[in-house]
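Continuing from the previous page...

OK, I double-checked the sequence for Nitrate reductase molybdenum cofactor assembly chaperone against my notes and this is the correct one:
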Amino acid sequence: MPSDAVLYQAAALCLTYPDDDLVARLPLLREAAPPLRAFTDHAAVTPRRELAAHYERVFDLGNRHSLYLSRWHDGGTRRHGTSLVRFQDVYRRHGLECSGEELPDFLPAVLEFTARTGDTSLLTEYRDGLERLRTRLTDYGTPYADVLDAVCATLPAAPTGTPP
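Thanks. Re-ran it with the corrected sequence; updated structure tokens here:
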């Protein structure tokens, strides 16, 4: 069974745009993170263009399948900016900075941060959003749901009474 850090790093790679680097890493990801095998096996037999088109359909549908965690909590409200600053502050406390290529609440970035530091506070804090994303991806019928299943399985149970 892989350590959670390995799983988080592998999940981060699986949730980024499927380029040639991801395709080349699939055998390693498959072996390093068995909970992601359903996804990695699917990605390994799917032509890259088809995989990329699927990624775009799944994650470019506005906020329905957003990989930006604060959107699940804040939506488009003014609090969104405050949440982004909070993500940056957590990163800085660990001596890390965002590259500027993505917003700091981008799930693959948060997973990579968690893998590098062992700090699960952001994933735990946004657990309800992760669960809603996981449910929507499952309902959509995408293999990306398996990635969220694996990540959510590593986190403490969500408090009961949390709205879906």
